[in-house]
Amino acid sequence: MTVMERIRSEVEGHPIVLFMKGTPTFPMCGFSSRTVQALKACGAPFRAVNVLEDPEVRAHLPRYSNWPTFPQLFIRGELIGGCDIALELHAQGELARMVADAYKAA
Length: 106
Prior knowledge:
Layout: H1 3-13, E1 16-20, H2 30-41, E2 47-50, H3 55-65, E3 72-75, E4 78-81, H4 83-91, H5 94-105
Parallel strand pairs: 1-2
Antiparallel strand pairs: 1-3, 3-4
Helix pairs in contact: 1-3, 2-4
């Protein structure tokens, strides 16, 4: 399986996927930490992929998503964006709705 196929499998195989630096328990950057906190505040179970442990995913994900930075949040196979977008959606109450919808359709 190529790295692009592995990325696609993660994105399509889980309702919510966060490609991040570190883990939800031990985030390795502030942006990843804040995104995790926003998802947790919504009560969202999510799949986290630590890009620091997989250099191939870290190198190829920006090409897959056409988004240059980490973290990258996907909901139902669609790139939502990075930390700033996730926090903005959370502040507006939209992230909670998107999360709830992701699991209704799952």
